[in-house]
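Need tokens for this chain, all 349 residues.
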Amino acid sequence: MSFQSEQHGKYLLRLANPGDNDGIRKIFESGSFAGGLNVQFLRGEQPLSSFVADGDAARILVAEDTKENRLIAVGGAVVRTEYLNGAPASCAYLTGLKIHHDYRGRLTFIPRAYGIMGELVSDCAATYTTILDGNTGVIRMLEKRRKNMPEYNYLGHYTTFCLGGGKKLMNVEKNRTDGFDTLLRRHFSRKSLTPCCPDYEGFGKKDFYCIRDNAGQIAACCFIGDQSRTKYYKMCSYGGIYRLISHLPTGLLGYPSFPKSGENIKCGVISYLYVRGNDAELCKRFLLSAAHESGFPLHLWGGFDGDPLCSAVGRMKTVKYGSRLYEVLWNENTKTRIGGAIAVEAALL
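Here are the structure tokens for all 349 residues:
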């Protein structure tokens, strides 16, 4: 990467360095997901380390107000080795541009920043990102073709499901991973954007849960991880109907319990979910049992359009939110490189 810095009036675009952690943390703390559930996504005291934990490398760009001597925006890409159309490849996940609340709507160099990001990920086989359904302004802006901006090629819809604490419906094994490597090669390798390595630090401190058939083969499995060391969600406030629902004993009804306003959300993140034959009833019994065994009051799992497990998990008692998945293209080639079945892990978004 030859890019070092670029001045735009009083704003300086440059690559992030370890001294930027405090400024990046303040940018994350200045914003939230607005709406009925007002939630902050935070990367802790060392956000640069948090980005790196999600892959093989992180290429992070920051914007600095040189007159005020403060960071005002951060964006970048996490590069990791993922299956792409059946083979391992270097893929870049764009983490999204975050702008400090005080500077929103004031920055004019965003197209140039995207151009620089294109240079920073030019060695990657594919680049992709997700945008929450509720960010309609951002969606309209990025889906419209603009000069000096990359093309956002819509691939489909992605749903994140929030499950409760579970219930023991069957016995599950814990941390016996025999056979998972075979599943990774034969099953998960067929799903584009699935990480080839299940041991990225960003998955969190995790445990493996599974059930087996009489021959000892895995019939259903997943990891459940605690990511709180590198990133977490904070419940800021409730609005609309959620203000009422948050006071109800939803956990007693099998739905996730709602954390109190101001609390960090304690949750386990489910990854590499496999259920033989995509059996909906087996999926339900296994997931509820694994969730119960993990001890977390809340669990997250995400699936892409067309994944049969989305239908299976969707039949359970969950709270869900949606995102749009895009391949990001910086050149004139409008033919997508990401094809076939897709399985993005919510743990690394």
